[in-house]
C-alpha cells in the first residue's frame, strides 16, 4: 500500500514490547488514528521528541490491511508545545483537553472542526491565554461540534435571559435552562448559573474561533461554567473524566 500523510496531534502514547510505541492521534481527515511506530523507543533519528503527548505532527503512515492500527513511518514536527510540559497548570489543562478529545473522536470520522479547536486550545495555552478560559471555551465548542450543544439561549419556559442576578438552573438530562421565576421545586436538579455566566457561554457558542480568546471569565463565572461543563460531560459519557481532578487541583480562576 502507498503511504498516506496527515497532520495529527498526539493524544496518547504507550510502550509496546521492547522497542515499539503505540500512538493515538487526532487527525482532521481520519478522526481518531492509532498507529504503531516500530523501533520508536530505540530510534534516535526518526521519532526522537516527536511521539510525545501534545505534539503537532505531519505523519506518514501505511494502512495495514483490515487492521485499524496503521504503521507510522515518519513524523515531521509542526509544533511540540514544549512549554505545556513545564508548567503544571498548563500541562493539566492540555491533558484534560487531549483526554476529552480522545473520549469523543471516533475512527474514520472526519472532523476538521474538532481538530481546529484542539489546535486553537493548545496554541492558546502555549501562547499564555487564560488557562481556565481555554478549558471552558474548548468544552463549550466541543459539545457544539459534536451535536450536544447545551440549550442555553434562554429560559425554556419564558424564553428570557434578562432576569438580572437571578440564578438560572441548567438541567443535565434535558440540556436546558430554567430561570428562577419559572422553576418549581419539581425541577430542582441541575447546576446553578448567574446571568453573567449564561451570557458568556452564549457568546462562546457563537463567536468565530479566532475571536474566542477575547472572552474573559472572572472567578465566579469560571467556577459556574466549569461545574456545568464537567457535569454535562459526565452526564453524556456516563463516567468520570480523571483529568478534571488534576486540573481542579491547580485551582480554578
Ligand atoms: Zn423563565
Largest sheet: 5 strands, mixed, barrel
Total helical elements: 6
Second CATH tier, the architecture of the largest domain = Up-down Bundle
Distance between the termini: 50 Å
Structural Rg: 20 Å
Binned strand content: 15-25%
What integer is the average pLDDT? Answer: 91
Under CATH, the topology of the largest domain is which? de novo design (two linked rop proteins)
Total strands: the figure is: 8
Secondary-structure content class: alpha+beta
Cofactors and ligands: zinc ion
Name of the CATH first level of the largest domain: Mainly Alpha
User: How would you name the CATH homologous superfamily of the largest domain?
Assistant: Recombination protein O, C-terminal domain
Total individual domains: 2
Key features?
253 residues, alpha+beta, de novo design (two linked rop proteins), 2 domains, five-stranded mixed beta barrel, three-stranded antiparallel beta sheet, 34% helix, binds zinc ion
Question: Any overview of this molecule?
Answer:
34% of the residues lie in helices and 22% in strands. It is α+β, with helices and mostly antiparallel strands and 253 residues long. Helix 2 packs antiparallel against helix 3 (131-146) and helix 3 packs parallel to helix 5 (219-237). The longest helix is centred in the last third of the chain and has 19 residues, at 219-237. The mean pLDDT is 91.
Amino acid at each position: 500500500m502507498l503511504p498516506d500523510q496527515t497532520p495529527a496531534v498526539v493524544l496518547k502514547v504507550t510502550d509496546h514490547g521492547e522497542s515499539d510505541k503505540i500512538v493515538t492521534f487526532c487527525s482532521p481527515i481520519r478522526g481518531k488514528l492509532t498507529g504503531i511506530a516500530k523501533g520508536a523507543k530505540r530510534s534516535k533519528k526518526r521519532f526522537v521528541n516527536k511521539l510525545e503527548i501534545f505534539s503537532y505532527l505531519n505523519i506518514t503512515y501505511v494502512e495495514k490491511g483490515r487492521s485499524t492500527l496503521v504503521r507510522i513511518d515518519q513524523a515531521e514536527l509542526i509544533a511540540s508545545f514544549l512549554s505545556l510540559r513545564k508548567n503544571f497548570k498548563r500541562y493539566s489543562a492540555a491533558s484534560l483537553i487531549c483526554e476529552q478529545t480522545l473520549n469523543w473522536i471516533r475512527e474514520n470520522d472526519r472532523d476538521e472542526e474538532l481538530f481546529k479547536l484542539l489546535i486553537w486550545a493548545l496554541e492558546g495555552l502555549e501562547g499564555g491565554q487564560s488557562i481556565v478560559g481555554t478549558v471552558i471555551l474548548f468544552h463549550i465548542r466541543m459539545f457544539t461540534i459534536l451535536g450536544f450543544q447545551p440549550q442555553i439561549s434562554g429560559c425554556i419556559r419564558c424564553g428570557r435571559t434578562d432576569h438580572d442576578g437571578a440564578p438560572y438552573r441548567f438541567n443535565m438530562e434535558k440540556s436546558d435552562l430554567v430561570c428562577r421565576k419559572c422553576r418549581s421545586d419539581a425541577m430542582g436538579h441541575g447546576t446553578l448559573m448567574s446571568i453573567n455566566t449564561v451570557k458568556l457561554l452564549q457568546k462562546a457558542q457563537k463567536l468565530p474561533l479566532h475571536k474566542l480568546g477575547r472572552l474573559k471569565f472572572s472567578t465566579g463565572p469560571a467556577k459556574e461554567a466549569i461545574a456545568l461543563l464537567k457535569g454535562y460531560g459526565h452526564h453524556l459519557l456516563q463516567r468520570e473524566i480523571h483529568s478534571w481532578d488534576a486540573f481542579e487541583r491547580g485551582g480554578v480562576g
